[in-house]
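Incident log, structure service

09:12 report received: a user says their structure output differs between two submissions of the same chain.
09:20 pulled the input from the user's history:
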Amino acid sequence: MSDALPVATIRTEVTVPLRFPDGYTTTARVISFNGLVDGREHVALGLGDWARERRPVGGHTPLVRPHSECLTGDVFGSQRCDCGPQLREAVERISCVGGFVLYLRQEGRGIGLYMKLDAYALQDAGLDTYEANLALGHREDERDYTAAAQMLRALGVERFTLLSNNPDKAEQLSRLGARVTGRVPTGVYLSPTNAGYLAAKASRAARAARASGIPLAG
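09:34 re-ran on a clean worker, output below:
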C-alpha cells in the first residue's frame, strides 16, 4: 500500500450469523474501523478462513468484494438493480474461499439515497442511470475507494483478487497502492425491470476495461 495512505485501525470485531431470504446461512466477522478518511461507518465482513484466523488456509490470496450500500436492493429487494443478488453471491463465494466483503456506505454511486431516488425519477422519464446522475449535477460515479484501501491495510491484506464487474474499482485501488492480482466477475442478474440499467453498466464497464491494466482472473 502507498505510504501516503492515511492509517486506519480496527475499532471492533464481532461475530454475526447471517441468513439470506433464500435460506443461505453463514457466519461473518464484522469489523469496524477508526481513522477512515471520509468519516463514514464502512464495515468489513470477514468470511471463510479469514473470519476465523485472519489468514487463508494454504496461503492463497483472499477474495475481496467492495460492495457499495444499496438500501433499495440490499434490504428491500428492489428489482431496478442487481445489488442485492450480487451481495448474496459475494458472501457465499467468499465464504467458500476466504476473504472480505467491504460494505461501503456510498449509496447511489456516491450521491446518496435521496438523490438516487431523484435519479430513478429521471430514469422513468427516459434517461439511463449515468445520464440521470449527470442531469442532477453529479458525476456518473462519485465513489472513492480510499477508505476501502485503508480497510484492507488495517486488515493486513497485502494482495487480493477482486470480485467485481467494475474495472474502476481495480484501477482506483491499484492507484492507492493495493496489490490487485486479478479480477473475477460476478453473475449477471437480469430482470424485466433492470435490463436498461444492466446494459448501461455493461457499456460503461467495457469502456473502463479498455483503460484498465487489471486482468480478469482465469
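09:41 both user submissions now match this output. Likely a transient worker issue. Closing.
09:42 reviewer note: The CA atoms of residues 67 and 103 lie 5 Å apart. The chain has two domains: 9-106+143-208, 112-139.
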